Amino acid sequence: MKGRKAAVTALDGALSKAPPPPKWLPAHGKAEWRRVVPQLVSSRKIAEHELGTVEAYCLAVANMRQAEAIVADQGPTYVSPTGELKRHPATMLVKEAVEASRRLAAELGLTPASRGKNSGGAIGNDDADGLGDI
Hints:
disordered C terminus; mainly alpha; two-stranded antiparallel sheet
């Protein structure tokens, strides 16, 4: 019998319980993990094989916060040994970490614009691509 597939209520392979953050993550990374992973798990949008992307996202957030703390403490500029006013190197670290965290957040469906686009979870049962379980 042909027809539409039944609505998928849970993605194949989606995690049902939030794993603890990796021990190697810095403190801000662990805090971000604890903030976003339960949300991804409850919406059934993350599978175990996708946790590396979450780790990278959390590390980018931690790096951003660490670099921003340096800029807040030392300022966005410094005077070089030759007397020139230069941009503090940590400002570039902030910029790179912000860009990485935004890109990874979008991949994970954590931004308002990407939230509806991310079906996440695992391979199969995707009616949107017209291929289903192939």
